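A quick aside before the break. I want you to see a complete sequence-to-structure record at least once, exactly as it would be stored in a machine-readable document. Don't worry about memorizing anything.
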Amino acid sequence: MSSGMEAPDIKEMDGMRECGMLLPIASLPSRYGIGAFSKEAYEFVDQLKAAGQQYWQILPLGPTGFGDSPYQSFSAFAGNPYFIDLEKLTEEGLLTKDECEEADFGYNEQDIDYEKLYESRFPLLRKAYQRWKRGPEGEGHFQAEELLGRETREYCFYMAVKNFFGSGSWNLWDEDIRLRKPEAVLEYRQKLSDEIGFYEFQQIMFNRQWEALKAMPMTGESGLSGIFPSMWPLTAPTAGLIRSCSSLMRTICPVLWQAARRTDFQPQASCGGIPSTTGSTTERRNMHGGWSGWSTASVSMIW
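That is the input. The structure line, written in tokens, reads:
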């Protein structure tokens, strides 16, 4: 009995079969507390190629917040500074081997001690940043507009302001910057310029090392694959405007809630089943702080 459909070509089906492995960057071996874009990552790619694998699937690479979950990132447009290879920074003269060895990342190389990692990694990166500013790339802070996307630069600004307010959630900041009033945005950009530069430095280093790793071929074509975060914490600048948080939005940020309820917004498909929103640029510019406070990649910015 025939269904009226031609049988698939087995050879064609076989040609479509590909395989790979899932291994988070954080799980790679490392002497410095957590897996990174280090030589161990390149060695793993070589092992995958030798085993006939086509893909390396990873977990989201965004900067993590409280709880250090890769699925609860501060931004979908920035990279996790924990994955910056300290050995490469040493080779570039931004750190010394002794400085890296003296840092306390925990006693067990089989586990990630995120508390010690937080306490040790950022002081090292700040040292690297200070040397980077004085080196040939010292104008990098002023090149960030060319080297980093707008959303990534917004993340750097957001983190600098967040640190200024003792790491508090943005909805607890002073009203002028919380609502992105233009004069407040300008004021904070000026007085926090060096802290913003520190976060831009992290993203420049992250991008450089990540792009180098992605350029490694697997079997003929690049086989590094990744997934995007499907959720953002309230503390993130890219937190999504989703129906489930509507009552919370009404309570803690009524101005933004009113802006989010505009009828000209139409739901669009996005990863993880979370709707994103689109709307007229003119309408969004009515918000304090203008267009720069919004993004519509896979979800909307609410700060």
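Two observations worth writing down. The first helix runs from residue 10 to 16. The radius of gyration is 22 Å. We'll return to this after the break.
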